[in-house]
Automatic annotation (TrEMBL):
Keywords: Cell cycle, Cell division. This is ARM repeat superfamily protein. Residues 231-325 form the Ataxin-10 domain. Pfam families: Atx10homo_assoc. The keyword Transcription regulation does not apply. GO terms for biological process: cell division. InterPro entries: ARM-like, ARM-type_fold, Ataxin-10/CTR86_families, Ataxin-10_domain. Coiled coil: none annotated.
Length: 332
């Protein structure tokens, strides 16, 4: 085990998060704590030994929550005592740590083993971040945003996304209760993600179409928006990954009235690159091998058509065939 060892990260932090100095100390109670101390960012390669160290103590062993809570902003760390559920504000050092762990998962997705402790801790961090982030302020950039609470939320989502693709899990080797995805689902991950999508305003193109169909003016009432570019896409990806070859999760999504909600994500959105592609992937996973879910989709009826200005400018109009109920474009 490590004892009173000081490590210096001389390379630039991932994705612009900055360089840092990390002190990792193993105390008599077998708890790790770390303190990142930001310095000048300078060019250089990321140290492999650092990633191996963090992979071992955070992803594979059970020290992540202790390390993460100790990185809380000054004056707050002593109040958490390793209990992530108590964290009500995140700092830049915590966002940096999650960004490194996310990068490790992405690079070693085929062979890394993720502990159940780590997966549940990330889910709790995401829950906390959802309650902290100001979703009424539209995010203007992708990650990193420079806003610690938003960056922690985004990194926790990307980690949850990659956990599904990991080559191994603690559950598959040590724990007979099931794999980490089922554990996360039983802990409320799917319900949380579906409720998030439901609370947010629909994708811009869908919102515009609904407004036109109902002859509405743009609402002055504020609604929740994506806190960073790609947020909606990341949520959709995780739902689709969880549903892959898991009928009980597919059923859970249907029971949460999430099928139509996921269908509404199959559109292009400039604030969420590849949302349409990931939306189609997720719907495919929700329907595969699930007769009940397919029946839900089959029972949907086309209510009518809406002519949007972009189509009208091309000299076309949208019509619905009264016999087949299929949509077609006709010349004006």
């Amino acid at each position: 085990m490590l004892e009173n060892v000081k490590y210096l990260i001389g390379a630039a932090g991932p994705s612009g998060f900055g360089s840092a100095e990390i002190h990792v100390i193993h105390d008599s109670q077998h708890h790790f704590f770390a303190k990142f101390q930001y310095g000048w960012t300078r060019a250089g390669r990321k140290e492999d030994w650092l990633k191996l160290l963090l992979s071992r103590i955070c992803l594979e062993e059970s020290y992540f929550s202790s390390v993460f809570s100790k990185l809380s902003p000054v004056g707050a760390a002593e109040n958490y005592d390793g209990d992530i559920s108590k964290v009500n504000h995140f700092g830049a050092e915590q966002a940096f740590l999650l960004s490194v762990l996310s990068e490790i998962l992405n690079e070693r997705v085929a062979d890394i083993v993720v502990s159940n402790h780590f997966a549940l801790s990330i889910l709790q961090i995401m829950r906390n971040a959802v309650g902290i982030v100001d979703f009424f302020a539209m995010g203007k950039t992708g990650l990193p945003t420079g806003i610690s609470n938003v960056d922690v939320l985004g990194c926790s989502l990307t980690i949850l996304r990659d956990i599904r693709a990991c080559g191994g899990t603690e559950g598959s080797k040590k724990d007979i209760s099931g794999d980490v995805v089922d554990m996360l689902a039983s802990s409320g991950l799917v319900e949380l993600l579906i409720s998030l999508l439901r609370e947010f305003e629909p994708p811009a193109i869908l919102k515009k179409t609904v407004r036109l169909s109902e002859n509405q003016e743009a609402s002055s009432t504020p609604s929740k928006s994506c806190s960073y570019k790609g947020f909606r896409r990341d949520v959709v990806v995780i739902v689709g990954n969880c549903a892959y070859c898991r009928k009980h999760i597919q059923d859970k999504i249907r029971e949460q009235d999430g099928i139509l909600l996921l269908l509404q994500q199959c559109v292009t959105d400039e604030d969420n690159p590849f949302l349409r592609e990931w939306g189609i992937w997720s719907v495919r996973n929700i329907l595969e091998g699930n007769r009940e879910n397919k029946q839900v989709v089959a029972s949907l009826e086309l209510q009518g058509s809406v002519d949007v200005p972009e189509i009208a400018q091309l000299g076309l109009r949208v019509e619905v065939d009264p016999q087949t109920r299929h949509v077609k474009l006709v010349n004006v």
